[in-house]
Amino acid sequence: MEQNLLVRKLEGYGPLSVNDRMVIEKMTAANVATFRAKSNILADGECPEQIHLILDGWAARYKTLSNGKRRIMAFLIPGDFCHLHVTVLKQMDHGIIALTPCKAAMLDSRKLSDLANKRPNLTRALWWTTLVDEAVLRQWVVNATRPAFTAVAHLMCELHQRLKSIGLVKDGKFELPLTQAELAEATGITTVHLNRTLKDLRESGLIELRAHSLFIPNFAALAKAAGFNDRYLRLREGKKRGDDIRLVNALIGGDSLAVPN
Amino acid sequence: MEQNLLVRKLEGYGPLSVNDRMVIEKMTAANVATFRAKSNILADGECPEQIHLILDGWAARYKTLSNGKRRIMAFLIPGDFCHLHVTVLKQMDHGIIALTPCKAAMLDSRKLSDLANKRPNLTRALWWTTLVDEAVLRQWVVNATRPAFTAVAHLMCELHQRLKSIGLVKDGKFELPLTQAELAEATGITTVHLNRTLKDLRESGLIELRAHSLFIPNFAALAKAAGFNDRYLRLREGKKRGDDIRLVNALIGGDSLAVPN
DNA sequence: CGGTCCATTGATCTGCCTCAATTAACGTGG
DNA sequence: CCACGTTAATTGAGGCAGATCAATGGACCG
């Protein structure tokens, strides 16, 4: 990873000081693990000792049902944590699989805890990532009951916005290194039906997808078809609040931080 | 509320000191609001000033879709927070409606923040509630793609276990003050189909439901039919960890706390 | 005692699933 | 660099779970 995408992601929430950035970069560079495509990063039931942070590649949260089918409940991209709260909930209630070759920083939870205690704006930024994950999940619940066309379109919008926030979208185009089977598991429909739905989306001119590269010629049009509104992703949520960050810092007992307006 | 159900809920996670209990009880008693059935507790887009904690009654998180249909994404019962993190994310990305007459404590977020800072085990317990909410949401994503029979059975199991953890289940029986339309919105199926599904569940002897009172004669049987495993609800998660709570307290810089084994 | 909301049931329709097969892409060793 | 095996994408045909439309009975309430 040329540049630290966690830094970039967190800055999507609010300003970080130079120190914050340095500390994050040092921490995430310390201990990096590599995972092969289709290998498990964390198994269901496992009790991880460290916090995994995706630095490169795509991963997914999933559960395997009793009938052997798998349901993907979230896609993880660079800057996403696998299990931020190992100290509160030890055991995984789902698995995490690398969909592509992945690199992940292995963070010591104690160190991260210490760090967050000293840097309230970092604490808030970490909180923010958790709450956004939850908001995305709520949207997936909604999506799961909508018609396939809308649901798939919505997923494309979500991925576009999330990847854009970490700088992985160029001219409305981004890498989507997922198989149709994986997309199907994430939308809760069959591979066959997903394929037909993609065809519909292509034929309606909303997306261009070939060789795992997705191009959205007109994002507004796709968003309209999908009923997508990125408000729930809370990009720039913290920036809008610059004014009261000092108050918040005081409130949670943290050190002060110069905040650009 | 005869006894404070938040206390009871949090004790489902781990031990609270006498002080913790007192502080919570005082705080939740201070400022209580009442909501009529079918009234909005928090509207989508609203920026709440206070943290709402359900003390009595049932509420639901929901989103209204562009076609006017509503999707319920969570049921809130006594002890549940509506929006614990008003300081991190100001604006609601969904609405919260009282399904029955409700009472809710209105907590000052600043005070709660202060309190949590002084009481690390309370902080951890609050974290726990957030993480369990997320785990439930993941399960709802899975549920939304399963057949109606299984999905409804699973919901019944979830509600049974959650209500049991706050002492609202007696002899396998509890009040379920929801209309079939509301249950349908929560499972993502039609009212008509939900009705038929309930009929199926009744006829297979797994549930007895009449006059908004649900009786589960054989929970294990229902759980088996639903593919339900309550591990994800993390009841007694903290208790199992009693041994290392001191370590954790030290880790997050908190005061020490006597822990029963 | 009529109005309103809720539960229940029937009949019909359809989006998506299942089963099945063909074609395209990809990787790997000869 | 091509042949071949494997995995991924695509298309067809038929079936079913659940949606839609419609109507009736029951419960609660002012």
Automatic annotation (TrEMBL), chains A, B:
Residues 146-220 form the HTH crp-type domain. The keyword DNA-binding applies. InterPro entries: cNMP-bd_dom (IPR000595), cNMP-bd_dom_sf (IPR018490), HTH_CRP (IPR012318), RmlC-like_jellyroll (IPR014710), WH-like_DNA-bd_sf (IPR036388), WH_DNA-bd_sf (IPR036390). The keyword Transport does not apply. It holds the Pfam family HTH_Crp_2. GO terms for molecular function: DNA binding. Keywords: DNA-binding, Transcription, Transcription regulation. GO terms for biological process: regulation of DNA-templated transcription. This is Crp/Fnr family transcriptional regulator. It comes from Qipengyuania atrilutea. The lineage of its organism: Bacteria, Pseudomonadati, Pseudomonadota, Alphaproteobacteria, Sphingomonadales.
